[in-house]
């Protein structure tokens, strides 16, 4: 399986280990942490969009 992982240009770590990476494969969105690439989360575009919209609206700002 050939997956092209992408990460944000806003990654602050010089080694690139302080970021999330995303890929699309077989209609799913895949996410992983660059410093732990063996753990991959599978989701859909709709679920990821709902999460990102909530984050932009501050729904998670009060998490301890």
TrEMBL record:
InterPro entries: DUF397. It comes from the Bacteria. Residues 4-56 form the DUF397 domain. It comes from Streptomyces niveus (Streptomyces spheroides). It holds the Pfam family DUF397. This is DUF397 domain-containing protein.
């Amino acid at each position: 399986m050939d997956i092209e992982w992408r990460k944000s240009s806003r990654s602050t770590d010089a080694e690139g280990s302080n970021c999330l990476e995303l890929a699309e494969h077989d209609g799913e969105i895949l996410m992983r942490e660059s410093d732990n690439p063996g753990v991959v989360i599978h989701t859909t575009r709709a679920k990821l969009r709902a999460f990102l919209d909530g984050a932009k609206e501050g729904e998670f700002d009060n998490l301890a």
